[in-house]
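User: tokens in, sequence out, please.
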């Protein structure tokens, strides 16, 4: 095989690889745009159930769950932020923001100017079989309950620190 044949073959392989990468990126984007909002809605439902149960066990409405849109929200999305806060405003809030474009789920607990605050991030990873799951920064797959438990634990931890 001479130089022309090698160079042409190499260029063809590079083009084929670029095309496959573009197709995979487009496929992943479509899946994230479809699955991500459903998982986020599932997280809202899970949070609402947990807060309702907590309030019932406490005998008073101590926590509330609300939804908002951030300033960068996609107009096709009903909400992109979940807020869990104490009714008396004594700590928090826990803010959970989802971006369907990047497939990221981020949370922050505590006001930015508070001494005690906590945050975290999960990324929606699309698997080769087309399924998708949120991954922690260490790459561990997490389901909605595991993510919700982690987030609500930060709210509880912050409350403990502020009342100590």
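Assistant: Sequence out:
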């Amino acid at each position: 095989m001479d130089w022309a044949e090698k160079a042409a073959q190499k260029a063809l392989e590079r083009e084929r690889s670029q095309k496959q990468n573009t197709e995979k990126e487009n496929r992943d984007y479509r899946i994230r745009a479809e699955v991500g909002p459903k998982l986020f809605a599932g997280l809202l439902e899970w949070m609402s159930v947990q807060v309702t149960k907590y309030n019932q066990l406490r005998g008073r409405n101590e926590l509330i769950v609300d939804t908002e849109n951030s300033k960068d929200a996609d107009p096709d999305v009903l909400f992109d932020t979940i807020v869990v806060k104490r009714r008396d405003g004594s700590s928090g809030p826990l803010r959970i923001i989802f971006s369907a474009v990047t497939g990221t789920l981020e949370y922050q607990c505590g006001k930015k100017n508070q001494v005690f605050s906590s945050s975290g991030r999960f990324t929606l990873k699309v698997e080769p079989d087309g399924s998708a799951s949120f991954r922690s920064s260490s790459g561990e797959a997490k389901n909605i309950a595991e993510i919700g438990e982690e987030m609500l634990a930060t709210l509880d931890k912050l409350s403990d620190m502020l009342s100590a």
